[in-house]
Amino acid sequence: MSHFQFELIHTDSRTGARVGRWHTPHGIVDTPAFMPVGTLASVKGLLPEQLKQVGTQQVLANTYHLALRPGAEIVEEMGGLHEFMNWDGPILTDSGGFQVFSLAQLTKMDDEQVVFRSHIDGSLFELSPEKAVKIQEQLGADCIMCLDECPPHDVPLEKMQDAVDRTTNWAARCRDAQKRDDQALFGIVQGGTDQKMRERSAEGLLPLEFPGYAIGGLSVGEKPEDMYSTLDFTTPMLPVEKPRYLMGVGRPSDLIEAIIRGVDLFDCVMPTRNGRNGMAFTSQGRVNLRNQKHARDPNPLDPECDSPGSRDYSRAYLRHLFMSREMLGPILISLHNIAFYQKLLRDLRQAILNDQVEEFRAVHLARWNASF
């Protein structure tokens, strides 16, 4: 019997939005779901029990960063990521492929592998498809990703095709290298915003029969409407019976638009990164707590959201924390933002079950008034 099962519960009658249940060795993930990013086996400033209290089911960690420190061997020796970071729920690890894009100035790549010059100490770090799988097997995440090439969205078509073909070849090598059967290895569809390139990528990956598929190469500089139109033609290429994961997205409005187009899983640093800088996502739109107008505001940040930072402190106090550089401020707003994202997804799952997802979108986008 497989360690993984994706159960499709309901699809909205007017859109591609769907509610599912993904069974993993470390628990069930109700989809659509948002994963907070814990790059170095830590969602910055937050305890695992805090993440659970606001509804987090699954978190993400990063292969490249953990391979550099503390090292995959140490994590394995400590019992794997679940034991190491004291998180007993599902974990997904990225392969390091996004760092090929984000750390492009520190990389050299050919068809065999990527060679990074470490951003920490300048040492060389070689990452092949086989090594990416081995590291992720040592880390012990439930869901692991194929090594891929994520090119900028505006590269010439010839370079985009090279990236698509390299991603497909690397995916086959990752599949052949996998030894553990208790980890779901996802293939990653690339191709930028070009429909033919996305078709080429999907046609190369689907015969490899991965248990799930990710959509990479979006939210890398293209306009939101281009991302949405790309999802319009990409998600229908992917198997209905398997989870679909949109990597690195994003804004609350982007989540709604992608879910309407049939996406199941998301991750993004935005809620915690913005939270550390005093930017809160609320039911009425974004709030910059550094603004002077909040200095004497006695109101809670967002009474519709259930976290200490949402309801227990005034906006005046939260602003004071940031202006005084008190560490409690980033902690409270990071937790609030994750709570907001989890509530948004819970409410959206219910709207899908009620066949009211279009109404949900209209109401929320109007309330946010394009601030997202």
TrEMBL record:
Any idea which GO molecular function terms this record carries? tRNA-guanosine(34) queuine transglycosylase activity
Q: Which UniProt keywords apply?
A: Glycosyltransferase, Queuosine biosynthesis, Transferase, tRNA processing
Question: What's the gene?
Answer: tgt
Q: What class of enzyme is it?
A: transferase
Q: What does this protein do?
A: Catalyzes the base-exchange of a guanine (G) residue with the queuine precursor 7-aminomethyl-7-deazaguanine (PreQ1) at position 34 (anticodon wobble position) in tRNAs with GU(N) anticodons (tRNA-Asp, -Asn, -His and -Tyr). Catalysis occurs through a double-displacement mechanism. The nucleophile active site attacks the C1' of nucleotide 34 to detach the guanine base from the RNA, forming a covalent enzyme-RNA intermediate. The proton acceptor active site deprotonates the incoming PreQ1, allowing a nucleophilic attack on the C1' of the ribose to form the product.
What protein am I looking at?
Queuine tRNA-ribosyltransferase
Extract one GO BP annotation from the record: tRNA queuosine(34) biosynthetic process
**Family annotation (InterPro entries):** ArchSynthase1/Queuine_TRR, TGT, TGT-like_sf, tRNA_ribo_trans-like
Quote the catalytic residue positions: D94, D267
Q: Which GO terms describe its cellular component?
A: cytosol
Q: Which organism is it from?
A: Gimesia alba
A Pfam family cross-referenced in the UniProt record is: TGT
Which family does the similarity line name?
A: Belongs to the queuine tRNA-ribosyltransferase family.
Q: Show the catalytic activity.
A: 7-aminomethyl-7-carbaguanine + guanosine(34) in tRNA = 7-aminomethyl-7-carbaguanosine(34) in tRNA + guanine
Region called RNA binding, residue ranges = 248-254, 272-276
